[in-house]
């Protein structure tokens, strides 16, 4: 039996995680072999494990106690205890412990991890402080917890060793790295970073920053996210936290960075441009739902990473925007036809993984043949098109094929997916696909057209970066404000 969460907040957390990782790779309330619940949500994808703990209590609502006493009690029960629980779950997974859907330990989660290269990320979602955070500071627009990551073994000369334990500032040990979201910014983070690739890259960069800096502090997780998205390094071609030079030993992100960022024209333009990208998500989610119900056929195993859909899920939001735009143009370009076979093939490469290519094949369904026969012919033609793509583009190591009836002329469509591993491409394969392609002439016809399209995360040259004001809201230039150098 697959769980769907127990409490209202657990169900929300699961829904958000399913949106990021897709339903096939999210599990609510999984159990360890001793029949003890391990966490509230477990998300596993591409050897990255995200352990989520949904916790909270009402200690801060007590009208009688001193605020310092209430804060320490709330923090101990909501965060400190869960840090220990999360560390235990991390050790269990790292040791290869089995994970189950049920407390009887009868149904094992169908995920196999390579323990030699596993990445485990611990995340606590803390409830119960939002209104109190807002009351404490009129500048705290979202009721977010402030976080400080530093070493608990700082020497006496460190300016960060004597940071006091003050209400609504959670001080975390950088050597036992655990993320803390709260009830408000959980939604912001998982709505904004709503693909595995984007969420993974943010978490990895944040963990890297925590490890290399003596101290990282921020007034809310959403403010750190704003800093990350504002801070694009043209050399590595990725968002970073801190500076590329790495000469600073501390970083502070002040109040209001997220609010200012999400009001910007660049942010709004990017969200508008991303709307087309959810065509990709719908295609993946639909297939995952069929797989979970046992309604798919073929030899691809979605859950064990040997599938086209698994590869499709790796794409970032920007890459999904580019791929979906390309597919949409192909759909609109399908020519009019009477009956019989009519086809339109589009080819596109991944922005996330440049060695991965996609073949999008639309093939009409002639009414004079059996539908199963049509599907079999479509799968054969799809494989030939993928093989022809590898012969054309020798740098590719993976090609994903997607075949459908042309949506322009059919109210309902079915999908066929194919994953072609082609990192080792023999002369025999090259010749075989070349011969099979003589009838179809994929990539060889005079009608074939090639077009390069440029995609920017922030469209229309809405550049955001270090020449802009510091995300802390001080009005100072970024480089001269919150990057603190030793």
Describe the structure.
- With 486 residues, the protein is α/β, with parallel strands linked by helices.
- It has helices spanning 8-21, 67-94, 130-136, 185-192, 196-212, 221-230, 257-262, 265-274, 278-292, 308-313, 317-332, 371-392, 427-436; strands spanning 26-28, 41-45, 48-56, 119-127, 146-150, 169-173, 179-182, 215-218, 232-233, 238-239, 248-253, 343-349, 356-363, 398-404, 415-421, 483-485.
- The strands form 4 sheets. It has a 5-stranded mixed β-sheet, sandwiched between helices. A 5-stranded mixed β-sheet has the order 6-5-8-11-16, with helices on one face. A 4-stranded mixed β-sheet has the order 12-13-14-15, with helices on both faces.
- Helix 12 (371-392) links the parallel strand 13 (356-363) and strand 14 (398-404).
- Helix 9 (278-292) packs across helix 11 (317-332) and helix 12 packs across helix 13 (427-436).
- The longest helix is centred in the first third of the chain and has 28 residues, at 67-94.
């Amino acid at each position: 039996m697959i769980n769907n969460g127990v409490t209202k907040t657990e169900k929300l957390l699961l829904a958000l995680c399913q949106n990021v990782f897709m339903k096939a790779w999210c599990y609510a309330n999984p159990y360890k072999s001793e029949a003890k619940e391990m966490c509230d949500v477990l998300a596993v994808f591409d050897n990255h494990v995200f352990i989520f703990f949904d916790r909270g209590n009402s200690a801060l609502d007590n009208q009688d106690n001193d605020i310092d006493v209430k804060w320490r009690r709330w923090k101990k029960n909501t965060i400190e205890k869960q840090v220990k629980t999360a560390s235990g779950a991390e050790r269990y997974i790292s040791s290869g412990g089995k994970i189950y859907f049920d407390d009887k330990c009868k149904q094992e989660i169908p995920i196999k991890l390579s323990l030699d290269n596993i990445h485990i990320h611990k995340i606590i979602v803390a409830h119960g402080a939002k209104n109190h955070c807002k009351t404490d500071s009129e500048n705290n627009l979202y009721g977010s917890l402030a976080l400080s990551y530093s070493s608990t073994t700082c020497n006496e000369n460190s300016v960060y060793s004597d940071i006091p334990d003050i209400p609504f500032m959670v001080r975390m040990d950088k050597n036992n790295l655990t993320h803390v979201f709260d009830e408000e910014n959980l939604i912001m983070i998982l709505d904004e970073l709503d693909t595995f690739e984007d969420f993974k890259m943010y978490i990895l960069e944040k963990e890297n920053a925590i490890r290399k800096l003596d101290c990282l502090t921020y007034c809310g997780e959403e403010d750190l996210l704003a800093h990350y998205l504002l801070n694009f390094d043209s050399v590595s071609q990725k968002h970073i936290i801190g500076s590329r030079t790495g000469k600073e030993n501390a970083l502070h992100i002040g109040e209001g960075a997220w609010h200012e960022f999400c009001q910007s024209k660049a942010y709004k333009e990017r969200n508008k441009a991303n709307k087309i990208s959810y065509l990709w998500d719908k295609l993946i989610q639909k297939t995952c739902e069929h797989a979970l119900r046992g309604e798919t056929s073929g030899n691809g195993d979605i859950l064990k990473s040997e599938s086209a859909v698994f590869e499709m899920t790796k794409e970032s939001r920007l890459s999904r925007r580019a791929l979906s735009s390309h597919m949409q143009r192909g759909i609109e370009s399908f020519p009019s036809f009477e009956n019989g076979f009519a086809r339109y093939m589009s080819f596109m490469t991944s922005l996330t993984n440049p060695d991965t290519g996609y073949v999008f094949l639309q093939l009409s369904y002639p009414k004079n043949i059996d539908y199963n026969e049509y599907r079999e012919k479509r799968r054969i033609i799809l494989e030939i098109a993928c093989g022809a793509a590898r012969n054309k583009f020798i740098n590719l190591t993976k090609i994903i094929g997607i075949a459908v009836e042309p949506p322009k002329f059919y109210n309902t469509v079915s999908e066929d997916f194919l994953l072609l591993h082609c990192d080792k491409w023999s002369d025999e394969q090259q010749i075989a696909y070349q011969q099979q392609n003589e009838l179809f002439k994929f990539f060889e016809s005079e009608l074939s057209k090639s077009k390069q399209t440029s995609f920017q995360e922030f469209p229309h040259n809405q550049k955001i970066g270090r020449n802009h004001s510091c995300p802390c809201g001080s009005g100072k230039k970024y480089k001269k404000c919150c990057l603190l150098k030793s």
